[in-house]
Each structure stands twice: as C-alpha cells, then as structure tokens.
Design goal:
mainly alpha; two-stranded antiparallel sheet
Length: 128
C-alpha cells in the first residue's frame, strides 16, 4: 500500500515546495484515503464490519470501534479529511486549482503523516 502511494505521489504531485496540493501532497486527502484502504485490506477478513461502508469517515469510525486504531486518530483523520475535502471543493467550484500555501495546512499534514506511519507500521523517515 505504501509503495503504491509513493508511486502515485511521484507521478501526480506537481506543485512548488511552498504549496500544498490538497489531494496529492504528503499528508493530504490521498494519504488519508490510503489509510482507510489499508485498514480494510488488512483487517476485513477478520472484521467484516469494515466492509459495510465505503466512505472513509465511517471506515475510521468502525476501525476505532473495533479498536484497530485509537479513537483520537479516527477523529483527527476525519476532521482533517473533511476540512481538506471542503477546501478542495470550494477551490474547484471557484475554478481554481486545489492548492493552498503549505504554511496554512502544514500542522494538519504533519498529523496525517504521523498517523499514516503509525498505522502502516512505517519508520518515521520512510513515511516522510
């Protein structure tokens, strides 16, 4: 899962270093979606409840209920995912690229990167 995500970022991320692509940048929407996909792939055979919903928010809720991830991680991922998704929709509807200055989302992106590494069992330097 992690290698696939790295390849996607390599091919799709096309912003200057001071900008944040809401979907593709490190700690963005795609990373949050990959966490949800990983949870389903890793645990669905054992926990069929993970297959009931296809949306990320409910997958995080179920994963927290099953104690696969801490409740705080599920809440943080949900909050950041909804915020980034809303920002992306607003920018797209305004006819703009879904990019923000990195400084505006740097703290949230760092939280996602930390959770991503923890859940996928990556070393700190690998997830960055």
């Amino acid at each position: 899962v992690h290698q696939m995500r790295l390849k996607m970022r390599e091919h799709l991320l096309k912003v200057p270093p001071d900008m944040f692509d809401l979907k593709q940048s490190l700690g963005g929407i795609a990373d949050i979606e990959f966490i949800a996909h990983f949870l389903v792939l890793a645990y669905a055979q054992q926990y069929h409840e993970l297959c009931v919903w296809s949306d990320n928010v409910r997958i995080f809720e179920v994963a927290a209920d099953l104690e696969l991830i801490p409740v705080m991680c599920a809440q943080t991922l949900t909050q950041i995912y909804c915020h980034l998704r809303d920002e992306s929709h607003h920018l797209t509807l305004a006819g703009k690229a879904a990019h923000l200055p990195l400084v505006e989302v740097q703290q949230q992106a760092a939280q996602v990167v930390e959770i991503y590494g923890d859940i996928l069992g990556l070393e700190k330097q690998q997830s960055e």
